[in-house]
Design goal:
This protein has 355 residues and is α/β, with parallel strands linked by helices. The chain folds into 2 domains: 2-68 and 133-219 and 335-354, Rossmann fold, CATH 3.40.50; 223-330, Rossmann fold, CATH 3.40.50. The chain is 35% helix and 20% strand. The longest helix has 26 residues, at 2-27. The chain is globular and about 65 Å long. It starts with a helix and ends with a helix.
Length: 355
């Protein structure tokens, strides 16, 4: 693997230079960026997946939703449709993608739209839904054709953009210097015990600009939620941990390691079954997972997945398999550390109210 990374390094440099040139063309005004009067908040990152965009957008929805009419706009990765689509209660993962479907499922009063062309998406959202007061752009930091009023960039505590490299050698979409375009930096997935000395070290390493605010967040895991109809031995999350259940962890996300580590701290046996990010599950996949589940000798066992993966496992064809298993998902939220929540909330709310 190390040799392959070395072999791909020249391609990483070439790719990085092309992205850098594209960004310069926007910076110099040769390529134009569209601005809107409505408050637009972009949530993105410098790397490919795994930094926690979805729970951070959900945090913003909860924060803003009680005061403003909120819309989310995503590309709709993995959907089969094209162009602008406004989600409704009948929308599925093939219509809008797994992350937008998760937003619509959890926040039915939030207006969820997808469009690969974000400028067109914002224009249509405003035209169709003039009551919208603010729009959250999902994964749009590199989408320079639109200029958000506030840009939030996430970086994983265990894999800072500073220590990463350009694709395909690493996972960066652009050079780390692109962080200068951000208004807010959030170091995500911080450990439960996050010492002041670690906070100070990271701020020194990242060296935010005077106009940039930096915050730190960590993952908060919720209780197990039943997916299928196998309603045997439904316990609270804590009871599953206390009774030392075996857990088959089915994931198709960019980085399942934090969840895997969390479970290993609480149960005697975790069997991870990993697929690529946004994986389109098949019946054969689930039959293989069921075989792994059946081969575990213990009677105290459950099949667990993530909330985002659940969106792709709702296909009617899968129910014949999943309904025979004690199948759950574990939702996640984020919480800020060291009093950052108050400062972050104030910055977001002040921006939207002012604009």
């Amino acid at each position: 693997m190390k040799f392959l990374r070395i072999l791909l390094f020249p391609f990483s440099i070439l790719y990085g230079l092309l992205v850098l040139l594209r960004n310069k063309l926007y910076d110099w005004g040769i390529f134009s960026s569209t601005e809107f009067d409505i408050p637009i908040i972009s949530v993105g990152n410098l790397s490919v997946g795994g930094t926690g965009k979805t729970p951070h957008i959900e945090y913003l929805i909860r924060l803003l939703g009680s005061e403003f009419s909120v819309a989310t706009l995503s590309r709709g990765y993995g959907r089969k449709t094209k162009g602008f689509v406004l989600a409704d209660t009948q929308s599925g993962v093939t219509d809008i993608g797994d992350e937008p479907l998760q937003f619509k499922t959890k926040f039915n009063d939030v207006l969820v739209a997808v469009d690969e062309n974000r400028v067109r998406g914002v224009i249509k959202t405003i035209a169709l839904l003039p009551s919208v007061k603010t729009i959250l752009l999902d994964d749009a930091f590199q989408h320079r054709a639109i200029k958000p009023g506030l840009s939030v960039v996430l970086t994983d505590f265990s894999k800072l953009y500073l220590n990463d490299r350009m694709m395909p050698t690493g996972s960066l979409r652009e050079f780390g210097s692109g962080i200068k375009r951000a208004d807010i930096l959030i170091v995500t997935k911080c450990p439960e015990v996050f010492l002041p000395i670690d906070r100070k070290r990271l701020i020194t390493e990242i060296a935010p600009l005077p106009n940039q605010n930096i915050y730190f967040s960590k993952i908060k895991y919720g209780k197990f939620i039943l997916v299928g109809n196998k309603a045997l031995n439904i316990l609270s999350k804590e009871e599953y941990f206390k009774q030392n259940y075996s857990i088959v962890l089915l994931t198709g996300i960019a980085n399942a390691q934090p969840l895997e580590n969390y479970l290993k701290e609480n149960v005697k046996n975790v069997v991870p079954v990993k697929f690529p990010d946004h994986h389109k599950f098949t019946i054969n996949d689930l039959l293989s997972v069921k075989k792994i589940f059946d081969n575990i000798a213990s009677t105290n066992k459950v099949l667990l997945t993530t909330e985002k993966d659940t969106m792709r496992l709702k296909e009617p064809a899968f129910s014949a398999i999943l309904n025979t298993l004690p199948f759950f998902y574990i939702p996640i939220e984020i919480e800020f550390t060291d009093g950052d929540e108050i400062k972050f909330n104030e910055q977001i709310l002040n921006y939207v109210r002012t604009n």
